Structure formats: structure tokens, C-alpha cells
Amino acid sequence: MPEQMVTTAILGRIDRPVEGEISRTMPDQVGNVAGATTEELSERLIQTTGRGIMPGPLEKVMVFWLSGMGCDGCTIATLGATEPSVEELLIGALPGIPTVVLHHYAASIESGDHFTHSLEQAERGELDAPYVIVYEGSIPDENLTVYGEPWAAEGSLPTWAPADVRRRIPTAEWVRRLAPGAAAVIAIGTCATWGGIPAADGNPTGAMSVMDFLGKEYRSAYGLPVINVPGCAPIGDNFTETVAVLLLFLNRQTPLPEFDELGRPAWLFSETVHRHCPRAGYYEEGTFADEYGDKECLVEVGCWGPVVNCNITERGAVGHMGGCMVAGGPCIGCTMPGFPDKFTPFYKPPPGSQVSTMMSRLVGSFVRPLRRISQLERNREPRWKERVPSGWALEYDTTTLTHRTIEFFYHKLQYFRSEEPGRQKPVEQYRSGYVVPVEAAYGEDYQVLPDRRAELARQRGAPQRPELTPQVEGFKAVGEE
Ligand code: SF4
Ligand code: SF4
């Protein structure tokens, strides 16, 4: 049986051999157990969960997720997002945000030509909603392909045509076809934003970023240049949050959020890793890890955090947990346009770090001992003047003359032109002549331990009270006779 007839027999399809002639009647999709398109399923979910009032002109936005030369890590990272989650976007759970109808090569219900058909509809302007392109992976130079097969493709055209007349469509071509009509183009991950690992020096496929591919002059149908959410893999929340605020903008609920000069969401990428790193205190005190697994700053085992725009130290990797430094890994600059080449060799200290670590060491050698004294003193109750009644560290109250001298001046400085806590000396008197009980019993120097208080009370001739002396006699430890 000729191939076209076989196809017709399986799918019950009508003839559609010529690219560009899209029929509105499609055959049933073999294996689609849901019996619905992604969009219909999304509608069913919304009907099940209920939906609040939707302000704004848009009820839904189509998202076409195209995949170039990547590792699918961006997809995995996005599926792990929690704030907002993909599910929340799909069922329209967020006020003011239109429902997302996601056309993703792995997550869509449609497959094969049914999947490709919606891309064709978008190109022809036949959708009943605006669409956004999300591109994952870098874009190869399809002029360099071997034997005419694309490096990265999605679907083939004409749909439902015999194999010998079909042509696989490079994702680069889909970008060229769809970008002019898209409400926005979002590049996700470092491969799509800057070129990433496929575009590293050597670059056999001529890989490049979406921004390189579309050029400086590109503007979406809503007037937006390419939006870049970098990371290898990116933080899933960075992406879903960017999508959410973009949808609010498209739905006229908010102004356009701020993007930096490279198209990154400015509120996510304007800080460096280092500024919010849990190890930054070690850097400042000049103590550095010698090997992996040490708790100190990782700059000497190759961390580039001080110059890298990334918010993983604030946001964590998934659900505010994890992230490079938390997991013990130095920053290798994976969110940066210069990644990977300008951060290699990995795990070697960045040359620029020599100056700053030397300065930190110098400052730290003065600051650390002073802080230790100050910290030790602030770990003492005011009444622990002579000794600390802790059974956990019997020598805790031992202090050196240097320690006491430094603390003396520190204390003076701390309360210079300020009032010290507690009752002031000479002791404040109430006009009525009332004296607070603790002073009546022990005098001005009442902030002392109980045995010293008992002695003071005796000296002052104050009445002796049995509870002034701790009752420890007769105490027996477990197992003592
Ligand atoms: S580990 Fe890296 S980011 Fe963290 S403090 Fe050290 S240099 Fe900065
Ligand atoms: S800390 Fe560095 S290596 Fe880790 S995600 Fe951010 S840029 Fe990438």
C-alpha cells in the first residue's frame, strides 16, 4: 500500500499534501487517551477548580516552547518551580494572570502533526489568543548541517503529508516564522540567552543565542526585545516569575517590569552572588576554604561569586532550598554571557581574587580577634562579672588582661553620649524615698551571682533569707548512691 494511503488508513485523515493549506478538520490523534487538546484539558481543569474574576482583556495566552541545542535542564528546572508553579500558570490560579496554554514537546497532549499544527496556526494568525515563544537551548547555524538534516528540529511540514514530501523544520526556522507575531520571546537558560556551552570556543555547530539570531532590532508584536532568563540550569522560579509578570503586563494589569540592558529581569539579576552568599562573612573576615567540604568562603577553590549576576543565594535552587554555595559548590558563572570560556579553568581561583583576598586576610587578622572578645563579652549576663556558672565550660570565665582592657574601652565607646541600661549611678532615688528591693538588700552593685548577693546582704545587715543561698546539698546524680 502506498505510504500516503497507509497514513490515511491509520488516521482517517483527509488529503493535505501541500504546505500552507491547513485544513480545519483534523484526524483524531492516535493514543490521545484524554480525548482533548492541551487547551481543552486546561479548560476542563479550570472548570473543575473554579476560577475567580479575570480582569483584563486576555483570558488565555499560548506559550510555544521550542527546543534548540540544550540538555532539557531548563524544562526540568521549570517543572520544579514553586513560586509560581507551572500548574498555577496552567490553571489560571493567579489573579490577573491569563491561563497559559502550554505547547511543550514533552508536556503537551498533542504529538506529531497535531502538535505541529498549532505552530502553523500561530504563524498564520489563526489562534484566538496572543502567543509567547519560549526558547530553550542555543540556535545552531543550520547552514552548517551535514547531509541536510537540521541540528535541532521540531515537527515536519507539510503536516499529514507522505514522508517523501515532508521536511523537518529546524527550531531556528520556527523562531524566524513565529517571532514577528509573538507577543514576547523569552530565552530560557544560558544556551538560549547567550549561547552557553554549545557556543563555547570551538563551536562546531555555529551555535548562538536567540538574541544573536534575531538581532538588535527585533521587537515582538508588543514592542519587546528578547527577554533573557539565564542560568545553567536556570532557577525555575526565576523563569515562572518572569512569565507571570510578563503576563500581567500583556493583560494590562501592571506596567512593564524592569529589564536590564541585556534583557534580564532587573529585579532578579542586578545583585551579585557574593552579596547574599551565606559564606560572605567568612570572606569579609579573611578565612577561606582550602578544599571542598570546608565551611568557609570558596573563592580560593574557584568561586567567581563576587562578579556574577545571579540570585541563587537569595532564592535557592528549588523551593528556597539549596543553591551552589549552600551545597558546597563554588560559582562558575553559569548565568553570565562569558560562560563557560571566560570562567575556565573551573575550580581555579579567579586572578582578580588575589588582591581582594589578600586585603580580606589583612583586615581579618585584626578584626577577628576583636570580634571574638566582643562576642565573648556579649555571651555573658551582666551578673556574670567574676565567673560564669555554666557546668558546660568550666573555664569559660577565664579572661586575659588584654581582653578586659579592650572590653573596658569598648564599653566606654559603646555608651559614649548614651545612657547605659539599668539604674544609673549614683542610684536614682524616687522622690518618695522608696528604694527598690534589690538595692535595699544588696546596694548599688546588685548585678551579681546569688552567693555574692548573700555576702552583700550580710555586710549590709539586711535580713537573711534562706532562698538567697542555692539549695544544692543532697542532690544526687543519676546512679549515685
Ligand atoms: S563562596 Fe563565593 S560567593 Fe560566597 S562569599 Fe566566597 S567568593 Fe563570595
Ligand atoms: S551561583 Fe554561579 S554557578 Fe551557581 S547558579 Fe549562580 S551563576 Fe551559576
Task: Report Rg.
Answer: 34 Å
How many runs of DSSP E, i.e. beta strands?
Answer: 7
Low-pLDDT stretches are 1-24
Rounded mean pLDDT is 88
Number of helices: 16
Helix content: 25-40%
Strand content: 5-15%
Q: Which small-molecule species are bound to the chains here?
A: iron/sulfur cluster
Task: Give the terminus-to-terminus CA distance.
Answer: 99 Å
SS-derived structural category: alpha/beta
CATH architecture of the largest domain: 3-Layer(aba) Sandwich
Topology:
Elements: H1 3-11, H2 38-49, E1 60-67, H3 73-79, H4 86-90, E2 99-104, H5 112-123, E3 131-136, E4 153-157, E5 167-170, H6 171-178, E6 184-188, H7 189-193, H8 210-214, E7 227-229, H9 236-250, H10 266-269, H11 280-284, H12 312-315, H13 353-378, H14 401-414, H15 437-442, H16 450-459
Parallel strand pairs: 1-2, 1-3, 3-6, 6-7
Antiparallel strand pairs: 4-5
The structure holds iron/sulfur cluster (2 copies).
